[in-house]
Amino acid sequence: MQGNHFAVQRFLTFLRDKKTDAQTFRWASDNLSRLLCGEALSKLPHEQVEIVTPVGAAEGQRLLTEIMVVPIYRAGQSLVHAFLEVVPDAAVGSLLIQRDERTAQPELFYKKLVYPLPACAIILDPMLATAGSAVMAVRVLREEGYRPQSIYFVGVVAAEEGFNRLAEHIPEANITVAAVDPLLNDKKYIVPGLGDYGDRYFGT
Ligand code: PRP
Ligand code: URA
User: Fold this and answer.
1) In this predicted model, what pLDDT tens digit does every residue of 106-122 receive, in sequence order?
2) Whether the CB of 190 sits within 6 Å of ligand 2
3) DSSP strands (E only) in the chain
4) What is the CATH number of the domain that holds 99?
5) Is 196 a catalytic residue?
6) 37 within a domain of the structure (yes/no)
């Protein structure tokens, strides 16, 4: 996402501000998720259709693919609701991948996908830092037979390093984020970023 859309910037500003309370953080996250979802869906195969309104003929758009959203728990859960509001028949898989707090290396604890596998898989995770977690999720999906072109990623903030790393595994055009930040600190947190998304969204 270009990130220059005012509404995106507005919600992102609430998310970044360390003074934002938990309730406002969740509100901004839920609203931004809807915008990100709209942007991501526009990248999926779709076609123009002719429909008839109560007063005449019109053109519309229809998705041409079935979708499985795959949140990376825990923070990825925050993006699921927005997708289900817009695509209520989307399948929901789950991957529990956690970064080790000391080494920042990801570990896969749990995997539950939906069979038969829908044609497109959209990985959901608000933070793309080193991209270790996202690349692990891509690997799981590749093992299930997904081609890189059918795997999408939706997040809120990426570090440039993680964005570039993920783009080595799936097409760059399949990655939707609201912002790409320049740095990772020594704990592999995104700078300026917004801190720990899961902690702030879930109030831990
Ligand atoms: C965070 C975040 C991503 C990951 C990003 O999750 O939600 O999953 O770190 O970092 P990476 O790109 O370097 O892999 P974390 O493992 O801290 O768990 P949480 O969702 O419970 O906060
Ligand atoms: N996870 C987060 O929640 N924030 C970061 O900056 C990096 C990983």
Assistant:
1) 999 999 999 999 999 99
2) yes
3) 46-53, 56-63, 67-73, 91-92, 94-99, 106-112, 120-124, 127-128, 151-154, 157-159, 175-176, 179-181, 183-184, 190-191
4) 3.40.50.2020
5) yes
6) yes
